[in-house]
Design brief:
The protein is α+β, with helices and mostly antiparallel strands. It has two domains: about 45 residues, no CATH class; about 230 residues, Bira Bifunctional Protein, Domain 2 (BirA Bifunctional Protein, domain 2, 2-Layer Sandwich), CATH 3.30.930. It has ten helices and 13 strands. The chain is globular and about 45 Å long.
């Protein structure tokens, strides 16, 4: 007699628990039967459903496009008011750079201005990112106060989600996720008094030519990775054998991470818009400090 034990870590805002499901499969040394496989599959689906710890945060309106910093403001609002929430978004062409980065060194400012590419600074660390309509952005808001644990939770789950879609996804020590040795996701995290904000990219159909023109990584950074260009080390999920489209990918990620949906109220939306204004300060964008 053999016990098949399936164990997965779950995280909850108020209580950190290990959610363990034990399928008592009375298996002899004979081969698995179809009935045994079916029992195991049903048990696994139930187990993973119980381990969904996030709530999907949905806006009250149907605005098609918002500035990238609106979504950063929503992250700030959520970590203070709605921990353990998750949301996905995408934007018109935008460059977003890290808290401590030199804007002029990382961004091709003249090109971005000429071609209407927006430029913003975020409050978390990490590198310079080009985002467009083909780049899915992920926001993972947790009441977990430990940055390393929050990062580990998110990266493990995102890599698991991609593997469940048939992709050979692996996470790296630099908080990236690779498929086929190329980067499909870069991520950053920062802590607040009430929890952690983890956010990242998921390249689905990003315009890499435009990305190369908009951002200007240092020659030293490229040489340290043994590559000649940014484009050489990244790839789109649609080129990795993913068999469904952008909206289907979004639906699958929501289903993987979330157990329910919460709608933001109109007054709460106004609170987010107020936070968004803090990202629009010219001094903050250019130098990382405010007027």
């Amino acid at each position: 007699m053999t016990f098949l034990i399936l164990k997965r870590q779950c995280w909850n805002e108020k209580v950190s628990v290990k959610c363990i499901m034990v399928s008592f499969l009375f298996i002899s040394h004979d081969a698995w039967t179809p009935d045994k496989w079916q029992s195991c599959k049903v048990g696994c689906h139930l187990f993973f459903y119980l381990c969904k710890s996030m709530t999907y945060l949905q806006l009250p309106d149907n605005a098609e496009w918002r500035r990238l910093v609106f979504w950063l403001a929503l992250e700030e609002w959520a970590v203070a008011n709605a921990p353990d929430t998750f949301f996905l978004w995408n934007v018109r062409p935008t460059v977003i750079f890290g808290r401590n980065q030199d804007m002029d060194a990382e961004v091709n400012v003249p090109y971005c201005k000429e071609h209407g590419i927006e430029m913003y600074r975020r409050k978390s660390g990490g590198g310079c990112v080009y985002a467009d309509e083909g780049n899915m952005m992920l926001s993972y808001i947790t009441g977990q106060s430990d940055v390393n644990k929050a990062f580990d939770e998110y990266l493990s789950r995102l890599a698991d989600a991609l593997r469940s879609m048939g992709l050979e996804a692996v996470r790296t020590e630099h908080n990236d996720i690779l498929v086929g040795g190329r980067k499909v996701s870069g991520n950053a995290c920062y802590a607040s008094k009430s929890g952690c904000i983890v956010h990242g990219t998921l390249l689905y159909d990003t315009d890499f030519s435009e990305m190369e023109r908009a951002i200007t990584p240092s020659r030293q950074k490229l040489d340290s990775k043994g590559i000649k260009s940014v484009r050489q080390r990244v790839t789109n999920l649609k080129d990795c054998g993913l068999l469904f489209g952008f909206n289907d990918l979004k639906s699958k990620l929501i289903d993987y991470f979330c157990k329910d949906i919460r709608f933001l109220s109109t007054p709460q939306l106004y609170e987010v818009l107020k936070i968004e204004e803090t990202y629009l300060d010219d001094n903050f964008i250019k130098y990382g400090r405010r007027n």
